[in-house]
Amino acid sequence: MSILDLFRLDGRVAVVTGSGRGIGRGIVLALADAGADVVITSRRAEDVAEVAGQVRARGRRALQLPGDLRDPDVRLMLAERTMAEFGRLDIWVNNAGGTDDAHVKPMTEVSDDELRDMLELNLIAAAACSREAARRMGEGGSIVNVSSGAGMRAAPNTAAYAASKAALLNLTQTMAAELAPHGIRVNAISPGMVPTDSFHRVLSFTEDDHAALARTVPLGRLGTPEDMAAAVVYFASPASGWVTGQNLLIGGGRDGGKSVEHR
Fold first, then answer.
1. In which domain, by residue range, is 128 found?
2. Known catalytic membership, residue 161
C-alpha cells in the first residue's frame, strides 16, 4: 500500500457545517476529491445546492440540508438525516461560525447579548454537533473543529469571537480525551488570514489591502480555502490515525502581533 492511500476517504461519509462558501466549501470539495460522500449545510439554500452540484460532478454523493445550526432541532436533524440517507457517519467538520456583527469593537462595547451570540454560534453549536456525531460514529471516526488564530492569543477588538474560538480549542482537547477509548479522534485547525467574504465584511478589508496584509505573513501570501482543506483531509483520514487532541495553526508562519484573522 502506498503512503498516499492513507489519505483516501473512499466509502466514508462526512458532514461539513457552514459549507456553502469560503473555507467550508473548500473543505467539502477536498473531502469529495479524497473519495468521501458529503453532507452540505449552511443557512443559504442556494449556496448549499451549488456546492452539492460540485460534489456530484466529482462522482460522489451529496446530501443538501440547509439550516441554522443555532437551532437544536436542526443539529439533531442533520445527524439523523445523515444516518438515514447514508447509513453511517465517519467525519464531522465543525466549520460553521464567525460572527453576524459586521463591525469589530473593543470589549468595553460588547453587550451581554453579543457575548451570548458568539458562544452560541462558535461554541455551543459545535459542541452539540460533536455530541450528536460522536453518538453515531464508530471506531475510526474523526471530528475536526475549525477554530481561529485569534483564539490562540490576545485579539484586540474581536474579544467575544476570539474567546469563543479559544473555548472551542479546549473542547477539542477535552472531547479527544473522552472519545479516545472509543477510537474517535478530535482535532482542530486554526486558520490565519484567509480572505473570505466574512473576512472582508467584518474587518473592512478589500482586495486592495491584500498585498499589504501578505507582507505581514512570513511566507508572503494570504491563505486559501484549499490550504485549510488539505489539513482537514489529513485529520479526517487514516494518515492521522495516531493523532488526537491537536490544533494546527495554518497561518503562513504568522503567529503573533495584532490579530486580523477572522472567518
1. 3-248
2. yes
Q: What is the total count of domains within the chain?
A: 1
Mean per-residue pLDDT, 174-202 = 87
Q: What is the pLDDT of residue 102?
A: 64
Q: Could you tell me if residue 220 is inside a domain?
A: yes
pLDDT averaged over every residue in the chain: 92
Q: Is residue 254 part of a domain?
A: no
Residue 97 falls within a domain, yes or no? yes
Q: Of residues 32, 110, 142, 161, which has the active-site annotation?
A: 161
Predicted pLDDT at 100: 66
pLDDT at 60: 98
Quick: pLDDT tens for 45-70.
999 999 999 999 999 999 999 999 99
> How far is it, in rounded angstroms, from Cα 182 to Cα 152?
28
pLDDT computed for residue 195 by the predictor: 84
Q: Tell me the pLDDT band of 104, cut-offs 50, 70 and 90.
A: confident
Cell 462558535 identifies what position? 122
Q: What's the CATH code of the domain at 119?
A: 3.40.50.720
